[in-house]
Amino acid sequence: MKQRLRIAIQKSGRLGIESTDLLKKSGFKFKKSERTLMAKCKDFPLDILFLRVGDIPNMVKEGVVDLGIVGENTLAEKEYSEVKIVEKLGFGKCTLCLAAPKKSDIKSITDFSGKMIATSYANITRKYLNNLGVSCEIVEMSGSHEIAPQLGLSDGICDIVSTGATLQANNLINIETIFTSQAVLVGKENAKKILKEKFIDDFLMRLQSVLRAQKLKSVIMNAPNSSIQNLSKVLGSLKSPTIMPLAKEGWSALHSVIEEDKNFWKTITQLKENGACGILISPIERVLD
Q1: Contact by Cβ (8 Å): 219, 260
Q2: Going along 22-78, which residue ranges are E strands?
Q3: Which of 52, 172, 176, 220 maximizes the CB count within 10 A of its CB?
Q4: Which contacts qualify for 264-267: CB closer than 8 Å, 24 or more apart?
Q5: Burial track 7-22 (b if 16+ CB lie within 10 A, e otherwise)
Q6: pLDDT one-digit tens code per residue, 87-100
């Protein structure tokens, strides 16, 4: 029987949808069925398991799967020292926040001293408060934390916040952000030494090609030849642009790749000011070194 790589992702929810999207963009072809919890890739020795996100770190720890995609918050809460982050994936971003009712007397982190906090993230919350010398009671709940203060079960909550709409709807205010999270690819610390090293390297190459491409844009522009030197200076820190002569005498087309960061549109403006026109900006599917 041929060795196959196994990865676990969330079976339902936003993290699962985005994980599936990343795998498919990376060229792994599979079909997810509602009736099964595993899919086999057709063109790569990869099996994908669809599990509860809270179970994934333990599955990696026990060697049931080689890799998993989880939120950093889930990994930190489970505290499995053997499970390490292999790659940060850039999606599923959220924060873990301490919140309290708007009309309560809790206005700062120290006001939680002697209070009760409802949360699913007892370990992260306790560690953060202990480091600040704040002593309080942690009430562990599996969900619906936002209603706990209204029911008299707690004085505040510690929960995942994406937009803040849930806090606002329940008359809660964010007192302090204690943890920031995003989706991460995880594996055992020595996974590449004891498991299918070649498969893992190939898998990571595909994933990283997509992750890198998401940060870049392909830019093609026309410009008079007299502007090429100045345009190259604008593109300065990047690799030299590809230059192709046009049918119109004295003109060329320049092709480069630009990182889509906070300075992206400033760079585009500078290109226009230095003679570029007909600028075409396109997404990139994959970038391989």
Answers
A1: no
A2: 38-40, 46-51, 67-71
A3: 172
A4: 264/217, 267/234, 267/235
A5: bbbbbeeebbebbbeb
A6: 999 999 999 999 99
**Per-residue confidence (pLDDT) for residue 191, from 0 to 100:** 61
At residue 1, does pLDDT exceed 50?
no
Tell me whether residue 207 is in a domain: yes
| Total count of domains within the chain | 3
Regarding whether 71 and 37 lie in a shared domain, the answer is yes
For residue 288, tell me if it sits in a domain.
Answer: no
> Do 16 and 86 lie in a common domain?
yes
CA–CA distance, 255 with 242 (Å, rounded to integer): 5
Domain that holds residue 204: 5-90+183-213
In degrees and rounded to multiples of 5, residue 2 shows phi and psi of: -70, 145
Q: What share of the chain is helix, strand, coil (3-state, %, to 5)?
A: 30, 30, 35
213 with 26: CB under 8 angstroms?
no
Instruction: Say whether both 9 and 67 belong to one domain.
Output: yes
